[in-house]
Design goal:
Number of helices: 14
Structural class: alpha/beta
Number of strands: 17
Strand order of the largest sheet: 5-4-1-3-2-13
Strand content: 15-25%
Largest sheet: 6 strands, mixed
Radius of gyration: 20 Å
Shape: globular
Number of domains: 2
Helix content: 25-40%
Distance between the termini: 53 Å
Mean pLDDT: 92
Bound molecules: NADP nicotinamide-adenine-dinucleotide phosphate
Length: 365
């Protein structure tokens, strides 16, 4: 049977360590988890079964493997040290028989976005970022339509536009946004991305190094490696739609508590075709997964064992090609989810009502 492996790592240290080691997770303080994570070897987590292509009926199998570094740990250590553990996890995937390896969350962010890791391994490697970008844009369309916002008539902000996913999401959204605002933290890189985005844009392209400028936007996609709590309640305009692709989340929990008028949702969740069993609770509901896992699975369904998405410069063509491939095999955008809860129509109507109770106009420049 064709097969894949996918690498994950702790996002919320206490919660995620408890999922694998209930007692350790309960008793170890967070600082100790960050410390110990440097020395813990890669871990086999589970055997994934039951995924079946809607197009061909082909069944595939896979494995979840953990690289037990927390996100802050990965950013503190040298990329070479982090690569060593990811490569060791990749060797485990090879021994299990996987033909393609997906890199989850910060294992794709660190260093050169998977290129060094792919060079060291004998199996194909993908970051999954192309399909992540495609699914984020699909989800954004759905959410904006539900809130009655036309992308052509609003400012669309992309926070982390200088990154791999952010850059290509910005190019895709620029084709339809009335105005696009690119937010980053390095002026020179932001200018480069701005020039690429300008080539596809139908409206004005604005650049900013200041997160508070997203208050101009009716629609926001946030996709950074900031490590959490970047987008706070005071940054968002009334009635804004916010797609948070980042893991750990960029949007602070305070937004859920303080801003009942904004629609915040997780970008990148899709439903898996067949009766999939991931064999381990790594976050999403049992029949759903992240875009990056789905990209790895779609390549396996298709028997395309190649380094599909690597590095930091993603191409729109590859984003569109993997979107078509995933749709062919039956991956579908999952219902919108916000802070671990599914958003139903009644909840979205309530948010709309809160948003209307203000004079602040959500249709901007
Ligand atoms: N949900 C999913 O399925 C899924 C899949 C893949 C990735 N992700 C998540 O998506 C995020 C981005 O991934 P990626 O592969 O695109 O990473 P990346 O290429 O490293 O891009 C991250 C970008 O965030 C920028 N950034 C960091 N802190 C910032 C801040 N305070 N303000 C503005 N920009 C900031 C970085 O700026 P510099 O260029 O200046 O460093 C970088 O350009 C990560 O959180 C990752 O875990 C989620």
């Amino acid at each position: 049977m064709d097969s894949f492996a996918f690498i994950i790592h702790p996002i919320d240290p206490k919660r995620d360590v408890t999922r694998k080691y209930p007692l350790l997770g309960k008793w170890l303080p967070v600082n100790a988890i960050h410390f110990v994570s440097r020395f813990w070897p890669p871990l086999y987590l589970s055997h994934i079964t039951g995924a079946r292509s809607a197009a061909t009926g082909k069944e595939i199998e896979g494995w979840l493997i953990a690289v037990p570094y927390t996100a802050p740990r990965m950013l503190q250590l040298s990329p070479q040290e982090v690569y060593r553990k990811i490569i060791a996890a990749g060797r485990m995937a090879e021994e299990l028989g996987a033909q393609v390896l997906g890199l989850g969350a910060y294992t794709a962010v660190v260093g050169d976005g998977g290129r060094t890791i792919a060079q060291e391994l004998d199996i194909a490697v993908t970051t999954g970022d192309s399909y992540t970008a495609a699914v984020a844009v699909q989800a954004l369309h759905l959410a904006a339509a539900r809130m009655g916002i036309a992308l052509q008539q609003t400012t669309v902000a992309v926070v982390g536009a200088t990154g791999a996913v952010g850059g290509v999401v910005a190019q895709k959204l620029a084709r339809e946004a009335g105005r696009i605002l690119l937010v980053g933290r390095r002026r020179a890189r932001l200018a480069e991305v701005g020039a690429q985005v300008q080539a596809c844009a139908q409206g004005e392209v604005a650049l900013s190094l200041d997160i508070t400028d997203i208050r101009e936007a009716g629609v926001v996609v946030t996709v950074t490696s900031a490590g959490g709590n970047l987008v706070r309640p005071e940054h968002l305009r009334r009635g804004a739609v916010v797609c948070d692709v980042s893991r750990p989340r960029d949007v602070s929990w305070q937004v859920a508590q303080a801003r009942k008028d904004v629609l915040v949702f997780d970008g990148g969740l899709v439903r898996v075709p067949g009766a999939v069993d991931f064999g381990f609770n790594y976050g999403p509901p049992p029949d759903m997964t992240f875009g990056c896992v789905a990209e790895t699975m779609a390549l396996t369904f298709e028997g395309r064992f190649e380094n599909y998405t690597l590095g930091k410069d993603l191409s729109l063509e590859k984003v569109e090609a993997i979107e078509a491939l995933a749709a062919k095999h039956g991956f579908k955008l999952a219902a919108l989810r916000s802070f671990e809860r599914q958003l139903d129509d009644a909840m979205i109507d309530k948010i709309k009502l809160q948003a209307r109770r203000s004079n602040d106009n959500i249709i901007t420049k």
